[in-house]
């Protein structure tokens, strides 16, 4: 994939971030209206009743979404650290990593992000953060110990490109909103499972909520997948532009593909932030092509082939 340029990608991701901020609340409001519409099924004034209920309760839905988003926005760093087991990496603990990161940042004229370490012998890394104060790069113990300097430099350059392209902010926004629909779906299922069989209008409303929450979750996941795969190709290309060493990054990806699984990572939304998704099983044959439709990352073999063609 041809690299489209840093400023073009930043503008593209800023636009996508804005569209995401609009698309998810619009989807939630649409599903809210559908809930009132379906709940009024059979009523002579079904549409009017649905509109009236929506106008009364719609603002509360928006307020609830805004509160959820602000809390998640403020606490995303702690949430990601908790989900990945990453801890701050001090300069005195690994001067090698700091030197590689600082040299790359100097060449780009950017501030050095925080550096974290995941105490896991597997090989993986990810970038996160919303602005210069919160940008960070997390590296597993395995990737630090098992890659040579050129390979590790390529991985750090890949993550720095995600930060410069504003990929990390875009991804965190999508994770927050997908989490809203996942929470609604889970709460509806739990209500039925532990609340006993409900009858009449209450049972009908619960079925509608589950149906609409699942639709919302499915569509929000598709939004996320549409954004996720292309960014890895672009970050690979950006890393090559930064280091001028495509074969070093290809070699790093080859080593990572052998053992990318980070044991602490259980959440699928957080797993997609890594350079290679530590939670995705690698299928073969027909299932591989089917998996590609719902994968958060392009096949690492394809990424290696592209790098070897630079």
Please report the distance between the alpha carbons of the first and last residues: 10 Å
Largest sheet: 4 strands, mixed
The residue ranges in which pLDDT falls below 50 over 5 or more consecutive positions are 284-290
Number of domains: 1
Q: What is the count of helical runs? A: 11
Side-by-side strand order of the widest sheet: 1-2-4-3
Task: Report the helical percentage.
Answer: over 70%
Radius of gyration: 22 Å
- What global shape is seen? elongated
Average pLDDT level = 81
Describe this structure in words.
Helix 2 (46-84) crosses helix 6 (167-195). By secondary structure, this protein is mostly helical. It contains eleven helices and four strands. Residues 284-290 have low confidence and may be disordered. A four-stranded mixed sheet has the order 1-2-4-3, with helices on both faces. It has helices at 6-39, 46-84, 95-108, 141-146, 149-164, 167-195, 200-243, 246-258, 268-271, 286-294, 300-308, and strands spanning 86-88, 114-118, 125-128, 136-140. The longest helix is centred in the C-terminal third of the chain and has 44 residues, at 200-243. Strand 3 and strand 4 (136-140) form a beta hairpin. The protein has one domain (6-308).
What attributes characterize this protein structure?
310 residues; mainly alpha; 4-stranded mixed β-sheet; 4 strands; elongated
């Amino acid at each position: 994939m041809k690299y489209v340029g840093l400023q073009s990608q930043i503008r593209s991701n800023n636009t996508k971030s804005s569209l995401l901020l609009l698309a998810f609340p619009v989807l939630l409001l649409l599903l809210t209206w559908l809930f009132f519409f379906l709940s009024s099924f059979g009523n002579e004034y079904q549409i009017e009743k649905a509109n009236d209920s929506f106008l009364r309760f719609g603002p509360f839905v928006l307020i609830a979404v805004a509160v959820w988003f602000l809390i998640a926005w403020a606490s995303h760093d702690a949430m990601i650290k908790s989900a990945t087991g990453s801890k701050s990496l001090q300069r005195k603990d690994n001067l090698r990593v700091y030197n590689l990161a600082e040299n790359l940042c100097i060449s780009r004229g950017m501030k050095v992000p925080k550096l974290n370490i995941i105490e896991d012998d597997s090989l993986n890394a990810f970038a996160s953060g919303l602005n210069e104060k919160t940008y960070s790069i997390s590296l597993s113990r395995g990737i630090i110990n098992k890659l040579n300097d050129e390979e590790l430099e390529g991985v750090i350059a890949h993550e720095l490109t995600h930060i410069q392209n504003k990929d990390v902010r875009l991804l965190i926004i999508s994770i927050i909103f997908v989490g809203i629909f996942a929470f609604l779906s889970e709460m509806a299922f739990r209500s039925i499972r532990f609340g006993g069989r409900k009858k009449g209008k209450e049972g009908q409303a619960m079925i509608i909520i589950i149906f609409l929450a699942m639709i919302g979750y499915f569509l929000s996941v598709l939004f996320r997948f549409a954004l996720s795969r292309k960014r890895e190709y672009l970050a690979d290309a950006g890393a090559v532009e930064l280091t001028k060493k495509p074969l070093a990054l290809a070699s790093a990806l080859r080593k990572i593909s052998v053992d990318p699984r980070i044991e602490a990572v259980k959440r699928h939304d957080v797993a997609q932030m890594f350079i290679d998704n530590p939670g995705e099983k690698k299928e073969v044959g027909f299932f591989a092509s089917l998996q590609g439709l719902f994968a958060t990352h392009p096949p690492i073999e394809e990424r290696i082939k592209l790098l070897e063609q630079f």
